[in-house]
Amino acid sequence: MHKIVLASNNAGKVKEFNRLLEPLGWIVIPQGELGVSEAEEPHGTFIENALAKARHAALATGLPALADDSGICVHALGGKPGVLSARFAGEPKSDAGNNQKLIAELAGQPDRRAYYYAALVLVRHADDPQPLIADGICAGEIVDEPRGDGGFGYDPHFWLPAFGKTVAEISTEDKSAISHRGKAIRALVAKLQEAGL
Ligand SMILES: O=P(O)(O)OP(=O)(O)OP(=O)(O)OC[C@H]1O[C@@H](n2cnc3c(O)ncnc32)[C@H](O)[C@@H]1O
Ligand SMILES: [Mg+2]
């Protein structure tokens, strides 16, 4: 049984993590329920930001902490929005604003390739010298017209050619099976098992 604090304030992520980890016997407590403030995410890489978020939550709670830093990288935009995905259109964070800006920046652009990336970091305590790290990628294409109301963030504009649907149109089970976050969680769980944890 693993009791961990989930170092995220994103309701969409919290739902996905609960669905994936609770069947494995994990007790996942979102940091908001424990009064943890939002961590700074000042770094230029996903992995560094995930480590900062995990450490921050572990320090504040004394519990093991799991963080996810993720985003969408668009080929024609040189990998943008990348680590700035949550705040692409500025403050306050807004999925609608971010999607609008993404579509505007891609106007007239025939190359629609993009991928989602998630870096996960699990620390057993704030000074853990060996954080467990896993990541995952999910490739697709950006479509101008939003479709579907599942998922969160950029999902209504993220087209999956293999499904003929956007991520917001597929089931939660299918999203878990193919998403960057689903893949990263399965890799993390495998590492934990390998380490006998
Ligand atoms: O930092 P926390 O508190 O976890 O919440 P956040 O939303 O700020 O999370 P990030 O800093 O990791 O930024 C990730 C952004 O990337 C986008 N994103 C990540 N995973 C996604 C997914 O599965 N579907 C759609 N958009 C996603 C979405 O805009 C997120 O806000
Ligand atoms: Mg964030």
TrEMBL record:
Catalytic residues at D69 (proton acceptor)
Q: Which GO terms describe its molecular function?
A: dITP diphosphatase activity; ITP diphosphatase activity; metal ion binding; nucleotide binding; ribonucleoside triphosphate phosphatase activity; XTP diphosphatase activity
- Copy out the cofactor comment: Binds 1 Mg(2+) ion per subunit.
Supply the alphabetized keyword list: Hydrolase, Magnesium, Metal-binding, Nucleotide metabolism, Nucleotide-binding
- InterPro entries hit by this protein: dITP/XTP_pyrophosphatase, ITPase-like_fam, RdgB/HAM1
Enzyme Commission (EC) number: 3.6.1.66
Q: Name one GO cellular component term.
A: cytosol
Which residues of this UniProt protein bind substrate? S8, N9, N10, A11, G12, K13, S70, F152, G153, Y154, D155, K175, H180, R181
Give the record's subunit note: Homodimer.
Please state which protein family the record places this protein in: Belongs to the HAM1 NTPase family.
Per the entry, what this protein does is: Pyrophosphatase that catalyzes the hydrolysis of nucleoside triphosphates to their monophosphate derivatives, with a high preference for the non-canonical purine nucleotides XTP (xanthosine triphosphate), dITP (deoxyinosine triphosphate) and ITP. Seems to function as a house-cleaning enzyme that removes non-canonical purine nucleotides from the nucleotide pool, thus preventing their incorporation into DNA/RNA and avoiding chromosomal lesions.
What is this protein's name? dITP/XTP pyrophosphatase
* Encoding gene per record: rdgB
